[in-house]
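User: Show me sequence and structure for the first protein, then do the same for the second.

Assistant: Starting with the first protein.
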Amino acid sequence: MGRAEVYEDAARLDQVMERHARALAEFKARGGLNFRGRAETVLRDLGFSDEEFGLTAEALSGGQRKLVALARVLVARPDVLLLDEPDNHLDLDGKARLERTIVRHARAVVIISHDRYLLDVLADSIAELETGGQHAGRTQLNVFPGNYSEYAHDKQELLLKQRKDHMLGEREATRLKQSIQRLKDFSSSGQNNKLVRRWKSMQKRLEKMPETPDARLEPRRIGLKLASERGSRKVLELTALEKSFDGTPLLNGLDLVISAGERVGLVGGNGTGKSVLFRTILGEQTPTGGRTFLGPSISVGYYSQEHETLDEARTAVEEIRRLKSMSEGQA
């Protein structure tokens, strides 16, 4: 509007003013006037402090980046929110904040999650994708009212009914086949018209019987076996372990002993140093003080949060065969 060639041309100025009015209306409709304040409110609700607003995404933990991505979606006020495993990488506090945020969201939400407890809290209905069932070779969508626990109960009841229907159907089909064969034998090779009509009628009934697929009451399990040999009773020991960054302590005086066969859950808020501790145990980070000790002949397998241990230029099979000599079928 400030260009001379625009404001000196009345017709062109009217066009620009009309475009400006439309753009301003859309800006207001999307909450542009208070967008920053709304974004900061959403971030605070998800557990961020004002001091963290100026950090780059790369400086955040995996769980925090997950929450920033969620905040970015929420401030756009979508009519339907599609969440693909939003609770991955979140600590316990992050999961609780995620639950509260979704509960307050007044619009439609569809969540993919392997966390049955999250679905128990948030879901009003469960949609199940299933391959096979009554339509072999096809994938169908079945919707169950209620949360995950209700779905699990209703699904089991449905499978039991399908199993019963299948058994009854198989029993009836067997009975008809046996009756048809007996009538064929009694009809003297087709000479008795009355018996012929009866077994042909039964044959039609058999052909029209609906197929009742058998139900799989137990899910198919992956064919994977894990085996290990114990090289030492003491697997891992941390003694007065310390780790600082630029003089600021992150880990301070950690002591821990893990013995063979123990299973330990490591919990803590985002940014408290859980992944740093793993990298220090692996030798990827040098401790500021103290020491780590792995038992003799102990081998360590590391599953990283961001999967940075994978070579993304390789296929899945190539990545497995790179680590151990095996056939393609075994991989």
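Switching to the second protein now.
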Amino acid sequence: MKMVIAIIQPSKLDDVKDELYKADINLMTVSEVLGHGRQKGVTEIYRGAREMGNLLRKVRIEIAVNDNFVEPAVRAIIKGAKTGETGDGKIFIMPLENTIRIRTEERGAIAIG
């Protein structure tokens, strides 16, 4: 079991969700987050003065998957989120020690869905 976490542009959320659905991945958690990568935010001119915005709006998608769904999830996220421009985002894959479905108390791979 793995936890796949993607940080993407907000405008690409619908595209990523569509690609995940096509890959038969339907369970996810989505959060609005703030952050920046190499671009270190954006520079704007406000009333003639340069201002550096430190944090940009991003979307964080968390998906718990069984091992055989890791690569399909990664491919779907890339296909939906990639523009080829700086700031497309990142994908993190981490081991998931256990999962428990509260309603039935099922544990492990079966509890993911």
